Amino acid sequence: MKTLKKTRLTTFFNNPAESEFKKYFLLLSFFMLVFLGLRIAQGDFRLPDSDDYFATAELLKSGEYFSSTSDFVKGTLLTKRPFLYPLLILFPGFSNDLVIILLQTLVGFFNIYLILRLFQKLGGKSFRLLSIFILLTPSIFIYTHLIMTEVLVMTLLLLLALLLIAPLNAKKMLLIQLILTALIFLKPAFYLFSFVNILLFGFYFIKTRTFSFSVLIPLLFTIGYMGFNKERTGYFHFSSMQNINLIDYNLYLFKAQKESTEVANSWKESIYVEAEKLPNFKEWSEFLALEGKKTIKENLVSYTAFHLYGAIRGAIDPGRFDLMTLIEKYDTNSGFLNMLSTAGLKTTVTNFLDYKYFWIILILIPLFLIALLKWTLIFKLLWKKRKEINFRNSYIILFIAYAILITGPVNASRYMMPLQGILIVIAVISWENFRAKKSSTIK
Fold this sequence. Notes:
single chain
C-alpha cells in the first residue's frame, strides 16, 4: 500500500500534465489569496442578501423558524431564504464574518481544483489559457470572499459536471439528485428545475429502459418544503422572494424602461398600497402574484423580449459592480445594468464617461471582450458537436440555460459566477479544437 501511494505521488509530481496542473493550481490559489487580502482591506464581507442569511440563522437558532404566522412581514422573513446556508452560519465560531470568509476561501481553492480537473478530464491541454480566462473572470474570486451562496453553488455545479462527463450508473444518479436538491436549497431560483429534472430523466429512462426512484428526491423535497411553508404561513410557495422580486425588480425595471422611473415607482407603490389593505400573508402574496401575472399578460410580447434581453445581457456582464465591492459600499442604484434597465443606453454611457472611478471602466473593456469571446467559443463548439450531444451533455446545457433565463432582467455577473467554471472549460476546449483543426489543415 505504501509503495502504491509513493508511486502515485511520484507520478503526480513527475508527470508533465500533472506538473502543469499543480503549477496553475498554485498560481490561481495565489490570486485567490490576493483577492482575500483586498477584501479584508476593504473590510465589508456582506451584501444586503448576506443580512438575510444571518436573519434566517437567528430564526433557526431561536426556534422561530418553525413557528406559524399570518403577518406579511414575518411570513416574508420566515420563507425568504431556505435553511441550508444559514445552517452553516450557526456552526460554532461561524457567526464571525472573517471566519466564514476564510472557510469559503478553502472552498474557493477546491473550486479551482475542480475546474482544472474538469478541464483535464475533458482532454484539455492548455492550463495557461484556462488560467488566463479564469483570471479575466474576477467574479470567481470576488464572490468567494462575500457572505453569499455563490461559491458553494459553483462547487456543486462543478461536481455535477464531473459526474455527467462519464456514463451514468445508479450511484451517480443518486449523487446527481442529492446535488440538485442541495442547489435548490441554496438558490431558491432553482426549485422549478426539480420538475425539469423529472422530465429530462423521464426521457432518459424511456430511451435506456431503466428507472431509478432517486430522481424523485429533488421534487419530493421541493414539494415538501412548499408544504412546510404553507403550514407556517397559509400560502403554498417555495420562497417569499418569488412574488416580491417579480414586482420590485422584474416588472419595475420593465416599466421603468418602457415608460419612466416615475411611472414604475407609482405603479409599484399603488400595488403595495392595495396589498396593505389585505389581512394576512396568504392574501397579500396571492395579490402580488396576481398583479404580476396580469401585467405580464397585458405586455406578453414586450415583457418576454425584455426578460430574454436582460438574461442574455447579464450573461456578458463584465462585472463593474463586482469590482466596486472592493472599493466602496454597495449602492443599489449605481449599477451599470440597473441604469441600463431604467435610463437607457445613451444616458448610461454619458453618465459613465463622467464616472469618478473611470479607471474601472478601462479594466472592464478586456473583461467584456473575454466574455464575448467565451460565448463565441462555446456556441462554436456546441454547433460543431451538435450531432454528438447526448443526454448528459444536454442536462448540463439545459441547466445552464435555465439558470440564465430564470434570472431575466436582473441577470448579472454575480448570478453568472457559479456557472463560470464550466463555461470557461467549454470555451478553452473549443479554442483548442479550433487550433488543432487549423494546424491539421495547414499540414
